[in-house]
Amino acid sequence: xxxxxxxxxxxxxxxxxEYETNGELKTKSIDLLELDPSxxxxxxxxxxxxxxxxxxxxxxxxVRLLVQRLQAKLEQNSKHIFCLVKVLRAHILPLTNVxxxxxxxxxxxxxYDRMCKVWDTRSGEQLHTLEGHRNVVYTIAFxxxxxxxxxxxxxxxxxxxxxxxxxECYHTFRGHTAEIVCLSxxxxxxxxxxxxxxxxxxxxxxxxxxxxxxxxxxxxxIISLSFDTSxxxxxxxxxxxxxxxxxxxxxxxxxxxxGHCAExxxxxxNWDCSLILTGSMDKTCMLWDxxxxxxxxxxxxxxxxxxxxxxxxxxxxxxxxxxDGTARVYCTATRKCISKLExxxxxxxxxxxxxxxxxxxxxxSDKTARIWDAHTGECLQVLEGHVDExxxxxxxxxxxxxxTGSKDNTCRIWC
Amino acid sequence: MGLLSILRKLKSAPDQExxxxxxxxxxxxxxxxxxxxxxxxxxxxxxxxxxNIKSVQxxxxxxxxxxxxxxxxxxxxxxxxxxxxxxxxxxxxxADRKRFEETGQExxxxxxxxxxxxxxxxxxxxxxxxxxxAPASEIAEGLNLHTIRDRVWxxxxxxxxxxxxxxxxxxxxxxxxNAKKK
Lengths: 415, 182
Prior knowledge:
The complex is a heterodimer of chains A (415) and B (182). Chain A has 415 residues and is mainly beta. Chain A contains two helices and 35 strands. Chain A has a domain at 2-75. Helix content of chain A is 7%, strand content 48%. Chain A has a four-stranded antiparallel beta sheet, with no helix packed on it. In chain A, strands 5-6-7-8 form a four-stranded antiparallel beta sheet, with no helix packed on it. Chain A has a four-stranded antiparallel beta sheet with strand order 9-10-11-12, with no helix packed on it. In chain A, α1 crosses α2. The longest helix of chain A is centred in the N-terminal third of the chain and has 16 residues, at 60-75. The mean pLDDT of chain A is 97. Chain B is an alpha/beta fold. Chain B has a single domain (15-179), classed as P-loop containing nucleotide triphosphate hydrolases (Rossmann fold), CATH 3.40.50.300. Helices cover 29% and strands 23% of the residues of chain B. Chain B is built from five helices and six strands, in the order αβαβββαβαβα. Chain B has a six-stranded mixed beta sheet, sandwiched between helices. The longest helix of chain B is centred in the last third of the chain and has 16 residues, at 166-181. Chain B starts with a helix and ends with a helix. The mean pLDDT of chain B is 94. Chains A and B meet through loops of A and α1 of B. Chain B: Pfam families: Arf. Chain B: This is ADP-ribosylation factor-like protein 3. Chain B: GTP binds at residues 24-31, 48, 67-71, 126-129, 159-161. Chain B: One of its GO terms (molecular function) is metal ion binding.
């Protein structure tokens, strides 16, 4: 085995090793999920050396520099103050969701006006209009990290796959018998998964445009789905109060997570795929062992339905957003609530961490989005200006751009 | 509200929930009517550029009322909201005689929609507080409502501003939902 090169992954922090074995080029990653600004780099490098034979003594200095770079990246943009740079009168009807490509150079908006539009983030210029759906474009996604394709899921029961560069429609995926309300590309960007009000999810082949599998088993609408980091499993969250873990290569049910006593609102894996976090209308969120499907913890405290939940990129923290107008941040290891985000004057329907994991972004029916310190719960900024409730908000991968989409038919770019 | 609540209101409603679609030309008074139903302040109402949704309890039902903007350029999108509609409420500005033909046309097109077939329709002859308002009987005749045979219908004069007649209309709604849901 011969090490060829070392590459960095900023968020979550990791070092990719490209190495040669029997004439074949392979890669593996050293995940540094515990890395934080106070980590003793010297000790960490020693640990890496012990665990990874490819990192020989001669490479140690190089690795030390890389870890320091990763450490610096975790603090990058942490003092960033967001300013409104553009208001885009994007659609003639309310927006649904927004999504950025990995570099943040462009983003997409879906709307009740049946269109998806592609925008240049810097100039605010409209690059493409993706037209063809016959009803609300509800769920949208880029195939990040590549960013050359866009998938749109509509109330017209179809999903369309588009070229992000030309706006050309490659495929229309037909087969669902009710509204498509969630979708995701797998990490390899070979499949699109769609979840529907028809109680099924489907996997589609991007190349051929054919249906690969139908995931049948839920008893009510599927409203959330996500792949794990490797793409080998997918979870679906349903109004039937359960979450199902599926094997994507066979469409077999691996586990059914039973425990919530009301509709599921969100379901996600952490980065290393050891845990699943679910939020529910029953006002609780639950942590599950992804390997055996057992519930590890039930987190109570919210006074109303949980509308969204998420892990940070490394999986060290997770957060919940509630109709009670507050959000909470928990430490994954201890499952203790470390901060409460209080200040919104309406329900919080969206929550996400910045990739560095030290900030949170929330979107609310009070027409504002807010930026919070993840550790102290202090509200750092109120992004004001929308004249109707915010339906969606998102950070870019660098954590220095925020896009908000609203029922007021506009989207706003904050940098 | 949030997108998730919209999805919850989208699915076919359980027995005690009723999905009501509120349509009509711009300036007919749909949003005022919606706010009147929800007992909210009606002093600052601007043209609806999208939609408003409110849930009101009435006679043991939870009425989920969808108020959809009526401007010409967004009327083609009304059909986004047709799915699972239990009752259609069509609102007319009874004082705007110049637009009776236009409103009649839109109503006729709605009644042709497959997804709304057999859905009971209540027509509110709104703005009866205005002196120039045409009476409900005149509107019924002008719009040829008596030719509607594929569903139950009713015309009710009202003033969304004062609230007069609104409850009578909603009583009719509940009565006809009863018939449908049982």
